[in-house]
Each structure stands twice: as structure tokens, then as C-alpha cells.
Amino acid sequence: MQEVAIIGIGQVPVDEHWDKRLVELAGEAVFAALEDAELSRVDALYVGNMMAGQLDKQSHLGALVTDWIGMRGIEAMTVEAACGSGALALRIALIAVSSGIVTSALAVGVEKMTDTSPRETTAALATAASADWEGIHGVTFVGLNALIMRRYMHEYGWKHQDFAQFSINAHANGVKNPNARFRSPITKEIYKKAAMIADPINIMDASPIGDGAAAAVVVPADLVKGQKGKPLIKIAGSAVATDSLAVHDRQDPLWLKAAEKSSREAYSQAGVGPDEIDFFEVHDAFSIMSALSLEASGFAERGQGPRLALDGDITPDGRIPVTTMGGLKARGHPVGATGMYQIVESVSQLRGEAGPAQIDGVKVGMAQNIGGSGATIITHILKAD
Amino acid sequence: MQEVAIIGIGQVPVDEHWDKRLVELAGEAVFAALEDAELSRVDALYVGNMMAGQLDKQSHLGALVTDWIGMRGIEAMTVEAACGSGALALRIALIAVSSGIVTSALAVGVEKMTDTSPRETTAALATAASADWEGIHGVTFVGLNALIMRRYMHEYGWKHQDFAQFSINAHANGVKNPNARFRSPITKEIYKKAAMIADPINIMDASPIGDGAAAAVVVPADLVKGQKGKPLIKIAGSAVATDSLAVHDRQDPLWLKAAEKSSREAYSQAGVGPDEIDFFEVHDAFSIMSALSLEASGFAERGQGPRLALDGDITPDGRIPVTTMGGLKARGHPVGATGMYQIVESVSQLRGEAGPAQIDGVKVGMAQNIGGSGATIITHILKAD
To answer: Do the domains B138-206+237-384 and B4-117+209-224 match in fold?
Structure first.
């Protein structure tokens, strides 16, 4: 398999971009990534998106974005696995470049969620869950996560406040990221008193939706080896794993099997284990998901995810810094774009370009993008050469 | 690049499957393909689908189908380029197997379009066009194709009845295909008197929607070389090309640039030209699309597509048989599944398993899947070894 490198990254701030269309957001991220890569053209474009058909009345984003960025003609398509769509764009770009079928590829994640009513957006998000077993009952995504969190607290004896540090850390890191949707720190008191959404999940456990786009340019590593300038960032591990869509149908609803499988495969490809990971962009759509992801990916024992947060292990100077640029909680969660934000942020960290959010001396970073309540999980490990 | 073979195919008849869910249709096609391949498991599953999020309130089909077919855990995702989604599933399966990242992959196209009202289905289909330039004006897909057909007739001097043979041939071939939605022959008289939908397109120029699923199993060719039994079918050419989503924005709205580009690339990979193609599964969503596709793919001069049909060149014993199993017109057009039906039918022909629809002595077949009004076009060339 061909070694593959990320040589350009770009993003737009996550926000309510009411003045910009979806294709403009994608274009801005793509142009920034191309400029960063010092390339004017690529062979193929893979778009990660979940909801444009439903919310923007626009499917067929591959051709749309390709035309908008002035590359009419090249291969293009959309890839989708709900909130895991973003990282799939990188996955397919990696596979395409690895195969030798294309030499350069753009991966872009894009989503526009704030031009529609909350009712419409919530209904579109619910299509990530099982329509037959979950959606049909009217359960929302936060409702499903609330059921999981409640059971987790019951099973392992955690209190709600034990999850506070996930959100406090994310917001503290988001303050340092100019592309984050929320740049205000929060306190234990704010966390505790936040408005309840679906008990036990309050507004400070839940990531905000938003409009956004993030992109990366991918080429064979040997094409750019030895070039001076930016450090070379290689994709050292990449794996996708799946689980049942419906949460009730899992043997253990408190264990993310797909996170376990995809992280193990990525570790094996990269020749590292959890101890060698310098930072971890977790998919903290809800604070419970941070705990479950850390456990299944080998950073904490079963049921002990919150311990990491309580012990200060997840902060920038901790044992395993997470959500280093604010995560979904503070940077924001434009669902189909989120996986690519995680990649862009990981590359920034590994290049030493993360500004005030920079973590010193990082060489190996991991990003994990979760679709639905854990039904599709994509893990990438990136290494600075 | 690794040589790749299709070793199993499966399909369900295109119909109004009101008694079956989308995942059941996909499952039936997949189980048939696995049985045909004599495999019980693959490494990855790629689903081609356009509208499940909108019409079934179900995104995230990769994990859903994977779970349903008993392969919970493996890599899975959806790929989409409107009506071109089906062939993209094969394209990604090919790329993934070529890269060596997976050894075996399932490509399945699936769509369910008849459980919703015609208004809902038509609105969902319109998301394949440009929302900003076309959808916003309320133009439907048949409306866009009617504008193209009208201009084509004006520009090249054809009359409506000159397109009749495309539909007559498709229906004659569909009679011989047990999986076709319509199995009745039509006459010139029926074509002429058919109800108008969007002048000049009448109901006999337009393909019917439907529910359906078709699947193929893909592995490295050297894994199965020399095995006795079924002839080995190799993917000799595969290319995706794009054009502007909005038809008005093309220099020549009567020329499918993406068909030209993707067919030229596929010919070059396969080392053949149009003269060596034994049959061609064209994307006859509308009869005008057959003409445009034949021209841009090198089978007819510009503006002379209908001549082929009038001269009897497109029938099973003609120079370039098209829509050999009924095409979109008679087999039916479950949009995200259509590209995979074309592949399944091509493999049947190349294996000599097409029954009454069999064309004698075919060794090289081409299938072309079109997304939108030509904005994404995928061409595959298959060869019997």
C-alpha cells in the first residue's frame, strides 16, 4: 500500500453562516487547502455530507462543488455515514490515492444546518438512527444519548457532575481556536446549572450544530518527501468499523464495539498503541460519547472514562489531551463536516501550527469520527514525519 | 493497479415492493450475489443510494445493510451522485480492492421510491439538479430533459417519432428479462399516442421509477484465476467524470462532456474503442439521453444518435445493442440502484447467462450511469476472460 500524506488543510469558522450557501462554505475550505498545499488542481474530490438533500434540497454535491471550485470534469462524489461522513471523505481519498487510480485528491466535509427550522434539522438528524426501531418512536439523537448516559451512570455509579470536565476542557480549548463556534470558557457551576435537554443530558453535555466546511489535500507521500517547508503529515492508520444502527440491539449498549475495532485496526497499521498517541480528537457530540470513545479506544478501563477527565488527564498538559481545538462541544458540530475538522485540527497540531492551542512536542495524533450512536466509527492516526 | 473481477451478482425484480423495506431489498440482492460468488463474507460494503434520507427517513445505510446481512462490524458507507449513485458503489469497491486495503467488497445499489407520494418522490428527484438555478424555479427532472430534447430536435432537425426505436427496443428487450418492471412490447403507434408529460417527452420517452436493489461481489482477479465454473468477468475500465449541475451553464447543453471524458478514459484503460464494444447499457432515463450518450461515447456523430436507432443498429442483432435487458425504460429506474442493475445485466450477458435476452458471442460490454442531467457520468467496461 502506497504511503499517503496530507499536504494541505483548510477550514471555515463554524458558525451560523446565513449569508453563505453550502457550496460557498465548501469552496472556501477547499481553496484554503489548495493554497496551503500549493496546488491548483487535483484528480478527484470526495465530499462528506449527511443532510444537504434534506435541508438544502440539494443532493449531488460532488459535481456541484467540483464545478464551483473550477475543476469541472474531475471525478467527484458524496460519501455518507451520518455524523461520520466527514472522516469517510478522507478515507476514500486515502484509498483512491493508495490504489494509484488518482494521484491527488481533495477530501471536504461540509454541512449547513442553521438555515432550516430546529424541527427540520432535528428530524434530518434523526435519520442517522434506525428509522424502524428508533426514529419511528420519535426519539431524537439527544434522547438516544440520554438513555445511554442514564444507563451508564446507573451501571458504573457516576454522577452527572463527574462528566463536567469533558465540557470544561473542550470550552477552555475552544477559546484558543479562532474557528470555534463558542469561545467562552465554562465553569463547574455553569455546567451544573445548564438547562436540561433530555435528562441527564443538559445543554453543556451537548455539542451545538452549525454550518461549516473543512478540507484536506492528499497525495502519495513519496511525491513530497524531502520537500522543504511544512512538516510532512502521513496517514499512518485508517479504519472504518460498523455496529447495529439501533442501540437496543447491541449486546452491551455501553460499549462502542466499532470504536474498539476501528481503533485496534488503526493502531495495528500505525504500529502504535494508545500510549504512543500524543493527542486524541474524540467525537464529543455528547459528554457520554467522550467517555465511551476513550474506553473503547484503550485509554480507560470499561466504565472509567470519566475518571480520566476528573484526574486532569485530558487537558492540553495531561496524559492524553482530547478535543484540543474545542472538540464538537466548543468548535461546533456541523455533522458531515465534523470528521474533516478533526483531521484539519490534528494536522495543525502535528505541524506545530495550532497557535495558542498548540500542544508541545506532538508527533502522533488520533481522530475518531462517530456516525449515529456509534454505528459507524472511523479512526485515523496521523504522524508527523 | 490490481486487476479486479466481479465474481457474484444479485438483483431483485424492479417493482412496487410495498411489502418490503429498503434494507430487505438490499439484503435480497446481496444474498443472491454472495451465493453466486460462493462467499459468506466480505471485507467491506459500499451502498449506492440517492434518496433514502428524504423518502425513507433513513440515512446511514452502510451500517444498516451491513447489520441486516449479518456482517455487523465491517467497513461500510453510502456513496451518492444522484441517479449515478449505483455505479459509484462499484467504482469504490473497485478502488478499495485495487488499493489492497480490502480484499473483497460488496457493491449494492438500492432505492425505494414508491412508498411515498409522487409529489414527494418528484421533489426528492429534483435535488439531483441545481437547487440554486433549476430546483428553485420548480423545474422537475422530466422538465429539464424536455428542454434538452426540444432544443436537440430544433438544432438537428429530428422529429419526435425519430426517437421511437429507443423505447421500442428497450421494451422488446425487457420482455425477455424476468426482473424488468415492464414486460410488454410497445409499437410505433403506442409510442406516438402516449400521454404527454413535458412536451416533447411523453410517457414512452420516460423511464419509470420503482423499488429495487442490485449487487455485485468484487475481488482481485488473481484470487480467482483458473477456478473452474463461471467465466471470469474483469473490470477493464472504470472512470467518473463531472460537468456543471445546471444545464444552462454548459457551453453546449446538447453534448454530454462527462460522458465523453469518462468513456474515453474507460476505453483507454481497457485498450478498446467503441468498435470493440459488443453491447452498451445506456442510461436511457429519457430517450433523448440515449441519443446524447451514444454520441458522446463515440457510437454516433454529433446530432446523429437517433440515426443509430432508426437504422436498427441498437437491437440485439444490431451493430451496438443497447439496453439489452430492457434498460431504464422497461427494466425500470430505481435511481440509486440503476447503475448496479446495469452492471449485473452486463455480467449476465458476458457470462452467457442472460437467458432469452442473451446476445451471442459477447466478450466486451460497457455500462454508463448518469447522475442528474449529465453532471456525473460513470462508465465501466467489463471483459469476459
So the answer is: yes
Q: Where are the beta strands (DSSP E) in A166-255?
A: 196-198, 201-202, 212-220, 233-242
What cell does A153 get? Answer: 451512570
E strand or H helix at A67, and its extent? helix A61-68
**What CATH homologous superfamily does B138-206+237-384 map to?**
Thiolase/Chalcone synthase (3.40.47.10)
B83 among known catalytic residues: yes
- Nearest in space to A221 (alpha carbons), one of A94, A349, A346: A94
Domain A124-207+236-384 superfamily per CATH: Thiolase/Chalcone synthase (3.40.47.10)
| Domain assignments of chain B as residue spans, ordered by start | 4-117+209-224, 138-206+237-384
Q: How far is CA B151 from the centre of its chain?
A: 25
Whether the CB-CB separation of A45 and A62 falls below 8 Å is answered with yes
Report the C-alpha gap between B370 and B377 in whole angstroms.
Answer: 5
ipTM above 0.85, yes or no: yes
Q: How confident is the model at residue A1 (pLDDT cuts 50, 70, 90)?
A: low
CB of A305 closer than 8 Å to CB of A291: yes
Handedness of CA A181, A187, A190, A191 (dihedral sign): positive
Instruction: Answer left, alpha or beta for residue A247, where phi above 0 means left and psi between -120 and 50 means alpha.
Output: alpha
Q: How many Å apart are CA B199 and CA A160, to the nearest integer?
A: 64
CB-based contacts of A179: which residues, under 8 Å, 6+ apart? A11, A12, A13, A14, A325, A331, A341
Cβ-based contacts of A380 with chain B (< 8 Å): none
Question: Nearest CB to B21: which of A132, A245, A375?
Answer: A132
> Over the stretch B207-247, which tens digit does the pLDDT of each residue have?
999 999 999 999 999 988 766 677 899 999 999 999 999 99
Rg (CA), chain A: 19
**Residue B93: pLDDT over 80:** yes
DSSP state of B231: P
Q: Please report which residue ranges of A175-255 form alpha helices under DSSP H.
A: 188-193, 221-224
Chain-chain contact of A95 with B80 (C-beta, under 8 angstroms): no
The cell for A288 is 457520554
Residue A76 has pLDDT above 70, yes or no: yes
Question: Collapsing DSSP states into helix, strand and coil, what is residue A210?
Answer: coil
What are the distances in angstroms from CA B71 to CA A151, B21, B33, B318, B329? 27, 19, 14, 44, 34
**Residue A17 annotated as catalytic:** no
CATH class given for the domain over B4-117+209-224? alpha beta
Omega cis (within 30) before A356: no
Residue A266 to residue A234: CA distance in whole angstroms:
13
DSSP B274-303: GGG-SEEE---SBHHHHHHHHHHTTSS-TT
Cell of B45: 460494503
Its pTM stands at: 0.98
Alpha-carbon gap: B217 to the closest alpha carbon of chain A (Å) = 18
For B258-282, how does the pLDDT look when each residue is reduced to its tens digit (9 = 90+)? Answer: 999 999 999 999 999 999 999 999 9
Asked if A372 and B63 come within 8 Å (Cβ–Cβ), the reply is yes
Q: B315-330 in b/e burial notation, b at 16+ Cβ within 10 A?
A: bbebebbbbbbbbbbb
Cβ neighbours of residue A235 under 8 Å, at least 6 residues apart? A4, A5, A6, A90, A94, A218, A380, A381, A382
What's the CA dihedral at B198, B204, B206, B211 to 10 degrees? 130
Q: Which of B53, B77, B372 sits opposite A53 (nearest CB)?
A: B53
